[in-house]
TrEMBL record:
Annotated GO CC locations: cytosol
Region of the whole protein represented: 7 to 352 of 693
GO terms, molecular function: DNA binding; DNA ligase (NAD+) activity; metal ion binding
Keywords: DNA damage, DNA repair, DNA replication, Ligase, Magnesium, Manganese, Metal-binding, NAD, Zinc
Organism expressing this protein natively: Thalassotalea agarivorans
Positions bound to NAD(+): D39, A40, E41, Y42, D43, S88, L89, E120, R143, E180, K305, K329
Lineage summary: Bacteria, Pseudomonadati, Pseudomonadota, Gammaproteobacteria, Alteromonadales
Identification of the protein by name: DNA ligase
Active site, renumbered: K122
Highest taxon of source: Bacteria
Keyword presence, Manganese: yes
Family label: Belongs to the NAD-dependent DNA ligase family. LigA subfamily.
Purpose: DNA ligase that catalyzes the formation of phosphodiester linkages between 5'-phosphoryl and 3'-hydroxyl groups in double-stranded DNA using NAD as a coenzyme and as the energy source for the reaction. It is essential for DNA replication and repair of damaged DNA.
Gene Ontology BP annotations: DNA repair; DNA replication
Length: 346
């Protein structure tokens, strides 16, 4: 792992150096599904880049990794252009940063009133967009670079928890559902045990295993991987030629939307809750952190989203993420392990 923080170095050189490293790490992570550094190391570099760019705005370029979402879509798949871009999330790593996030939102809204948040675990898989037309699953795509993703419809059809046809009678003509495909811990352990036995390469973590399994050219392989799915938002919603129900179908609360999706058969993570004020968010984070090891799937933090859709619209987006949501991330497990070791020796 390369960790250089030289004060004598010019900011421009350091920025170039970080960009080159992040470029390489993105390729390994998003394209090859094979990271070579821990996420914490990647996150540190990204933070340093964002800070340097904030101090030297003239050095911030449009192609900087701080301005972009994810990686490129693999050319082996048909490309899908997202009608509404699939963004990433900003992140905070401490209670102070979380409070600063809330304060920024309140300042922007010009109100000190408390805000309701939809609080969700941050699932460690990969984002997909599912398109239902007249209630039938017609297309599924990965996030890719946020604008263009990979057409993975055949592979998505093998995931048992994703309905091929929506339940119920009432749904919009066109409904794009967004959510996370992930590999439950038990499936991941079984897959790696099998790979070890066969002398094959093992996956670094369930996220990479999920990404590698979903981006298979042969969907028979995907079918054997026991992937699962939770919905966490909607993309494009509109009427179709034969169904005039459109956007008006949607609730004006993010949490209520997830419940609407659940009623159509799209699984919602059971840990998701609606918090009436920002006060509860830190407690939610602590609760989920305490539960982490017992959950049957991997998570790497919590996600907190302003629940009121009108407020979300008022807050809008920056280059790569919405202003109305943030990932409140857990301390990296790699770091936790090291800390525990140190404690032991003392
Ligand atoms: P991210 O994973 O930090 O956050 C955005 C993603 O969170 C969304 O796209 C979605 O897939 C997911 N998500 C999970 N639960 C969600 C929920 N409830 N609501 C909404 N979204 C939810 O961002 P990213 O852009 O996908 O990846 C960046 C992160 O990936 C980095 O912070 C780093 O940890 C890791 N990474 C690591 C390497 C490496 O080399 N180790 C390289 C690139 C990225």
């Amino acid at each position: 792992t390369i960790q250089i923080t030289m004060t004598t170095e010019s900011p421009s050189l350091r920025i170039d150096q970080i960009k080159a490293l992040i470029h390489q790490y993105n390729h390994e992570y998003y394209v090859l599904d094979n990271p070579t550094v821990p996420d914490a190391e990647y996150d540190r570099l990204m933070r340093e880049l964002i800070e340097l760019e904030a101090q030297h705005p003239d050095l911030k370029t449009l192609d900087s990794p701080s301005q972009k979402v994810g990686g490129e879509a693999l050319k082996a798949f048909e490309q899908v252009t997202h009608q509404i871009p699939m963004l990433s999330l900003d992140n905070v790593f401490s209670e102070q940063e979380w409070q600063a996030f809330v304060k920024r939102i309140q300042d922007r809204l010009g109100s000190q009133a408390s805000i309701s948040f939809c609080a969700e675990p941050k699932l460690d898989g990969l984002a997909v967009s599912l398109r239902y037309e007249d209630g039938v699953l017609v297309q599924a795509a990965t996030r890719g670079d946020g604008t263009t993703g990979e057409n993975i419809t055949d592979n998505i059809r093998t995931i048992k928890s994703i309905p091929l046809k929506l339940y119920g009678e009432q749904y919009p003509g066109v409904l794009e559902v967004r959510g996370e495909v992930f590999m439950p811990k038990a499936s991941f352990d079984a897959l790696n045990a099998k790979a070890a036995k066969a002398g094959d390469k093992q996956f670094a973590n369930p996220r990479n295993a999920a990404a590698g399994s979903l981006r298979q050219l042969d969907s028979k392989i995907t079918a054997k991987r026991n992937l699962a799915f939770y919905a966490y938002s909607v993309g494009y919603v509109g009427a179709s030629d034969s169904n005039e129900v459109g956007e008006e179908w949607l609730a004006q609360s993010h949490f209520a939307r997830l419940v609407q999706l659940k009623e159509l058969g799209l699984p919602m993570c059971p840990e998701v809750v609606l918090l009436m004020t920002e006060e509860g968010c830190d407690e939610f984070y602590q609760d989920i952190l305490a539960k982490r090891d017992q959950l049957p799937y991997e998570i790497d933090g919590t996600v907190l989203k302003v629940d009121d859709i009108a407020l979300q619209e008022q807050l809008g987006f920056v280059a790569r993420a919405p202003r109305w949501a943030t990932a409140y991330k857990f301390p990296a497990q790699e770091e936790l392990t090291i800390l525990e070791d140190v404690d032991f020796q003392v």
